[in-house]
Structure formats: structure tokens, C-alpha cells
Amino acid sequence: MFLTLIFLVQLVSAILGFVFINETKDSFKNNYENALKQYNSTGDYRSNAVDKIQNTLHCCGITDYRDWTDTDYYSENGFPESCCKLQDCSPQRDADKLFGIYEAYCLSLAITNNPYDIV
After folding, report:
1. Can you tell me the distance from the alpha carbon of 59 to that of 50, in angstroms, rounded to the nearest whole number?
2. DSSP letter, residue 102
3. What is the pLDDT of residues 29-68, one digit of tens each?
4. Secretion signal: which residues (predicted)?
5. DSSP secondary structure of 86-102
6. Strand stretches in the chain, DSSP E
């Protein structure tokens, strides 16, 4: 009886995860866009979350690294270090010279790598 109950809970969770994947994706995108716009290097929780996501998933930006060009942080400092593949990377503002910048985008990686962990 108990195993049947656990099985049903897992089944319902999987179905709900599949049904609400688009809502989860939209929510992640909106929250991540807001975090990028409010990013700074002082270490607030949003900036730490962005850095952790980009370091963990080896990505830069929501849809690509150019998402950073619309932020205040970029206009003052260029790309954050969490976009760098290399240890001693000094991200430049000039996109043509982006040696060592992650070109993968975080939205796709977050959804495809962990489709059921997000829900």
C-alpha cells in the first residue's frame, strides 16, 4: 500500500513536471533577466546566484553572452568573470576579442540538463 502511494506521488510529480516545463522556463528566464540587470560585483544574493549558475553550467547570459551588453555592469566593467572559461581571463567589452568566454547560454542548459530538478 505504501509503495503504491509513493509510486503515485512520483507519477503525479513527473506528469506535473512535464506539463509545467514551459512555465518553469519562462519563470527562470524572467528572474534571470532581472538578476542580470541588477548584477553588481558587491556580492548580493542575485549576483552570487548569477555567478553560481554561470560557473556551474559553464554558460554566459540568458540566450548568449551578448545579453550582458544591455546591463549597467557591462557598460562599466565588461563581462563578469563568471563568463570566463580560463582562470586568468580578463573579459573585454569588445565581443570580437572574446577569447575564453563561454558561448553557451544558461537558459537552454538549465532546462535541458535538469528538466525535472527545476520543478
Report:
1. 10
2. -
3. 888 888 888 898 677 888 898 888 888 888 888 877 788 8
4. 1-17
5. STT----S-GGG-TTB-
6. none
